[in-house]
Amino acid sequence: MESKSCKGDSLRPAVPCKHSVEKKTMTNPTTVIEIYPDTTEVNDYYLWSIFNFVYLNFCCLGFIALAYSLKVRDKKLLNDLNGAVEDAKTARLFNITSSALATFCIILIFIFLRYPLTDY
What we know:
Order of helices and strands: HHH
Helix content: 40-55%
Number of strands: 0
Protein name: Interferon-induced transmembrane protein 10
Transmembrane segments: 45-70, 91-113
Strand content: under 5%
Family: Belongs to the CD225/Dispanin family.
Number of helices: 3
Subcellular location: Membrane
Organism: Grus japonensis (Japanese crane)
């Protein structure tokens, strides 16, 4: 059997065509994919903190919740997922506490306005 060769082999040394050469060894290409944690699922309670700071700032708890909400946003930008989750829990705690205490005080004010202490 004759080996296939390119045109003009009489002028050049015998070099097989690039189409007829098969690679004997193929290496598996490797791809590195960097997966960053999904920080969009960490809730920062930012709007709730602003509402508590502006309207229900009971003993400055709304301000503290706002500060922790901003820390959550900063840690999300730095891809510190564990720190962001911890600060989100703290911001949620201060928001719940501020909302509950302020709501309780507002209810007490309405009760005392409706039934003054002079009636007892």
